[in-house]
Design brief:
- By secondary structure, the chain is an alpha/beta fold.
- It has two domains: about 350 residues, Alpha/Beta hydrolase fold, catalytic domain (Rossmann fold, 3-Layer(aba) Sandwich); about 130 residues, no CATH class.
- The protein is about 40% helix and about 15% strand.
- Strands 1, 2, 3, 4, 7, 8, 9, 10, 13 and 14 form a ten-stranded mixed β-sheet that branches. Strands 5-6 form a two-stranded antiparallel ribbon. Strands 11-12 form a two-stranded antiparallel sheet.
- Helix 1 packs antiparallel against helix 2, helix 3 packs across helix 11 and helix 6 packs antiparallel against helix 14.
- The longest helix is centred in the C-terminal third of the chain and has 25 residues.
- The protein starts with 8 loop residues before the first helix and ends with a helix.
Length: about 500
Amino acid sequence: MKTIIVNTSLLFLLVLTCPVFALDNATKQVLLKEAETHKEIFATTQHTIKLEGKKLRYTATAGQLILKDEKGKQKAEIFFIAYKKKDEKNSSRPVTFAFNGGPGSSSVWLHFGAMGPKRVVLKDNGSPPPPPASLIDNEFTWLAFTDLVFIDPVGTGYSRVLDDKKDKQFYGFKKDIESVGDFIRLYLTRYNRWLSPKFIVGESYGTTRAVGVTDYLHKTHGVDLNGIVLISPVLNFNTIMADLSNSLPYILFLPSYVAAARYHKKISKDQDISDYLPEVETWAVKEYITALIRGDTLSTGDRKIIAEKIAGCTGISQDYILKNNLKLPVRRFRKELLRNEKKVLGRMDARFTGPDTDQAGESSRYDPSLEMLIGTFSSAVNHYIRNDLDFKNDTPYWYLNYRVNTAWNWKSGIRSSQGYVNVSQMLTDSIHTNNFLHVFTASGYFDLATPYFAAKYTVNQLGLEENLQKNISMHFYNAGHMMYIDKPSLKKFFSDISLFYKHLLNTAKQDK
């Protein structure tokens, strides 16, 4: 069963141009204004999934909510896909809003990789099978314990700004947060979810957005959340963007380099990776950071000692490390580790490699771990929306919009004194304001985009009151940026997040 509201602009156009109709100018102006008004479009369908031997019936709604400015003028339409467990009271069931990052990414990755009732078919390690793509019931869907709303921010998916001349106003930290926060407020109102437990899930830049939206919802709309899930978080860009005045990322990327080197057998260690990496972390914050701080004052002998240590744990030659002044930029590490094999490492997931077609180059921007997944996820979402959800739209679904990414206004963000976007203090303030807010972070050891040690560092710098430090739990997985594409990691992730929701909701009941 479905319900569809259609756009009637063509009808108005027919009325205005057909000579059969004789209309006065005033009436024509009214109709013209109405014809320029975008209509909200929805498709509602009913589905069933079998989870742990039991049938779960749910309603899926694909649609576009229109955001308006203070004067009531339409400014953007935001596409979403929502899932609600059938025959469940709204107030007793949590609702979770989810989005990816980019900036410029739709929510397709979280939707069909981890959380939704359907997921794309991948090999157990996360690599795709031959095309065409296919979807299966997701036994790890979060619909088992929460209703879900997947949001495509403006400029992604089917979400569009309604005035093409003003599209870039949404492509920045502040306006992006406002539009997503305003959508959530509107959804809570339209679907009567104000009294539901509320959660936000963000991935990558989506974690930056998630913290900003949490702050915005509280201050602007009086909405307090129960929990935030930060997948492959980056809250302080100072931790991942190295330059001549910022050596911190070299420290924080090192353990992930070691994990990659061990995976590709460039070093040999008998210990489990989760047991070995803490040793690397300790050395990095005790000796490596001291050496980088000393800079040009470091003696030649000490410089060689540090280079030898880095070489021993990363598989990169001591000579190459010395030539790079003890600093390994991520693009160079990805190219150098398997240079002799003419392969480059994935940035999102260093377990995966691709052919290195530029042997003379010093660094690489090509990311085989992302490129290999694009066709699978794009085909899946385009088929699913039209056929399973019965939402008909001939405009392109922007799974990734690089134009948004290159146009992004980083200057509108919360910035540290060095000029990096930093929302970590915003998260601290949100927890101090709402003591019931809990945070779940998930990081992959092989992530060379937002390394797991950077997440650890950021959490350790939050400055939370001691009794509130327990509000944040950190989890780590033997996979990359999208750890959920790896089947064993997906299972562990689902188990961890299920317990997070269960514990948090049970605690909330007891505290009432």
